[in-house]
What we know:
With 208 residues, the chain is an all-alpha fold. It has a domain at 60-198. The protein is built from 11 helices and no strands. Helix 1 crosses helix 4 (40-58), helix 3 packs across helix 4 and helix 9 (159-178) runs antiparallel to helix 10. The termini are far apart.
Amino acid sequence: MVAAAMDLFSRKRYDDVYISEIAETAGVAHGLLFYHFKDKRGLYLEVLRRMLDELVDLQRRRDDELTGEQWLRGVTLRQVEYRREHAQTMLVMMRAGGQDAEVDELIERSRKAGVEFLAAVVGLAGELPPRTRITMRAAMGAADEMIADWLTHGCDLEVAELVEAVYTVVVAALATVCKQSLRLAAVAGDQPAGRARSTGRRRNDGTT
């Protein structure tokens, strides 16, 4: 049932999907949907939760992603491709803030997972300095907005070009708080290792 609903909600707007259509696609009786999910909104929220879990799993490092740069590029590509395949639902998750408290909670989980991923990419653990945390959230928000704009304009850029654009924006944001870090140099590839090592002290403003 959830898989059928996920497919329909990914291709159509929420108001254009009907319980009868979901039941027919899933091959089940209407009553079974109401028994498990109460109504269409309950099923929709379950679809969003399932998609959030899948999005977070896309951030898992693959065996061939040996460097931070490869990991970040790989995740960016996987996110772009997944969101293109589930365009309508992803647009809701990326742009529906403030309209539904339960959807907002899911969006917040997604943002936090994104920050944890970026922190892992640059080798940071534990509580982040406020400036670093804020910047990483902004980077994830920028990435979401870039992909959302692309989806609403009919995917009018080649995937490889979009991935490069998103990657560049995220690394540029990270560089404002990690510009002296050897870890970020491995991601951005724009700073000699020796120089990064000699200047890698933490500053009071949260820059590493």
